[in-house]
Amino acid sequence: MDFLELIIKNMKQSLFLLSGFLITLLLLSGCNNTTTTKSKEVTIRQPVDTVGFAQYDWQMDSIMTRIDRDQGKALDDKLVYSNIAPSGWKAAVSPHDDYAYVGYMYPAVLKNIKAKTIILFGVAHKAKKLNLEDKIVFDSYDYWKEPYGNVKVSDIREDIIKQLPMGIYEVNDSMQKIEHSVEAIIPFLQYYNKDIEIVSILVPYMSLKTMKKIAEPLARAINKSVKKRNWQWGKDYAIVISTDAVHYGDEDWGGKNFAFNGTGCKANEKTKIHEYEIMKTISGPLSPDGIKEFTEETVDKDNFREYKWTWCGRYSVPLGLLTAYNLQKLNSEDPLTGTAIGYANSIDHPQLDVQDLGMDVTAPAHDHHWVGYVGIGYY
Predict the structure, then answer these.
(1) What is the mean pLDDT of residues 132-137?
(2) Rounded to an integer, what distance in angstroms lies between the CA atom of residue 89 and that of residue 86?
(3) % of the chain exceeding 90 in pLDDT
(4) Is 289 left (phi over 0), alpha (psi -120 to 50) or beta?
(5) So what's the pLDDT on residue 15?
(6) Cβ atoms of 242 and 94 closer than 8 Å
(7) Is residue 322 a contact partner of residue 290, using CB atoms and an 8 Å limit?
(8) CA distance 2 to 132
(9) Where are the strands (E) in the chain, listed by range?
C-alpha cells in the first residue's frame, strides 16, 4: 500500500467514526429531551375570607367542639334523617355566612353528605364587577387550600366541561378566587371526610329560561361522567348548593333598605314566616313548578338581575335543583324529596365564640341588619 492509499484509508475510518459519534449524540439528545420535559405547574386556590371562616385544622376542631358544647341541643333538634337517606343526601342546600353566625346549621346540613366527590353550586356575588351573566363559571385550579390540607379538584370537572356546548360556560379563575360562597362549606365537608374532591360551579345573573337551557346539558354531562366511573348518586357523588337566605334590615346594606316589613320583633317574625313559605317551594317532591315558584319569589319579574326578595342564591338554588331534577329524570328515579332540616338567622341564637381562635365576623347582626340561613336535604 503506497502512501496515498494509506491516507485515504485513514480518512475513511475517521469519517466512519465521526458519523457514528454524531448519530449517538443525536440519539442521546433525543432521550434528554423526553426526560427533561417540564410537568404542568400545580395551581392551588387560596382562601379569600380569612376572618369569618376557618383556615386551620385546629380552628375547625375547636369550632366543631364548641358547636357540640354550646349549641348541641339546637343541633340535635335539626334532624339529619339518616333513616331516610342511609347512603347520604343526594343534594343539599347549605348556608355560607360567618361560622360565628351560622354555627350549628352547617353540620346539621352537611353531616349527612356521605359522598367523596361534591359538585358545589355557588353564588357569584361579584359577577357584575366582572361582567358575567348567562354562563356557569368553572375554575382551572388543581387544588383548593383548606384547613385539613389541600382538597383535590376532581378529574370529573374536565369530563363535564368537554361535553358542554360552547356558550353556556366559561373557565374564570378571576371570579372563582374572589368568591366565598363555596369555600365556606368545604371545611365542614372535609371535617367529615378528609378525602373529599370537589367541582366548583358558580352561577351569576341569569333568567329562569337560561337556567333551564344550561341545566339539561349540564345534567347529561354529569350523568355520562359518573356512569363511566360507576358512581352512585348519594354514595359516590353529591350536589351541594350554597345560599344565604334573606338579607334583611335598613342599615349597612350599601345604602339600600331591605326592611321589607319594617324593623323590630313583629317585623322580623313576619319576615321569617315569608322565609318559611319560600322554603316550601323547594321542599317536598322536587319539581320544575316549585323551582319556578322559588324564582318568582326571589327574582324581579321585569329584570332578572334584580332581587325581589334578597336571597343571594336566587340563581345557584334553581340552577342546582334543575340540574338535580334532570339527573333524576335521566336515571328514571323517583322524584327527589326535599326535607327541611332547619331555619335560623344571625340574631335568633347566641353567636359562637370564635375571637380567641383568630376569627371574627365580617358584618353586623342586629334588628336592623340580619341574614337568614336555610338547610334542606334531598333524597
Answers:
(1) 98
(2) 8
(3) 84
(4) alpha
(5) 42
(6) yes
(7) no
(8) 87
(9) 44-45, 91-94, 117-123, 136-138, 143-144, 151-153, 169-171, 197-203, 237-242, 247-248, 284-285, 337-345, 370-378
Count the alpha carbons within 13 Å of 61 in the hemisphere toward its beta carbon.
Answer: 5
Q: Say if residues 238 and 192 touch (Cβ distance below 8 Å).
A: no
The mean pLDDT value of the chain amounts to 90
The residue with cell 443525536 is 26
Q: Which of 139, 134, 140 is nearest to 319 (CA)?
A: 134
Letter for the amino acid at 82? S
Would you call 129 helix, strand, or coil by DSSP? helix
Angstrom distance (rounded) from CA 8 to CA 4? 6
The type of residue at 85 is A
* C-alpha to C-alpha distances, 137 to 31, 164, 210, nearest whole angstrom: 41, 12, 14
pLDDT at 335: 87
Q: How far apart are CA 56 and CA 327, in angstroms?
A: 35
295: which 3 cell numbers? 324564582
Instruction: Output DSSP code: residue 201.
Output: E
Summarize the confidence of residues 153-172 as an average pLDDT: 98
User: Given pLDDT bands bounded at 50, 70 and 90, which one contains residue 82?
Assistant: low
CB-CB contact of 177 with 48 (8 Å): yes
Q: Cell numbers 366582572 label which residue?
A: 130
Place of cell 326535607: 339
Task: Specify the pLDDT at position 333.
Answer: 79
pLDDT-based confidence at residue 38 (cuts at 50, 70, 90): low
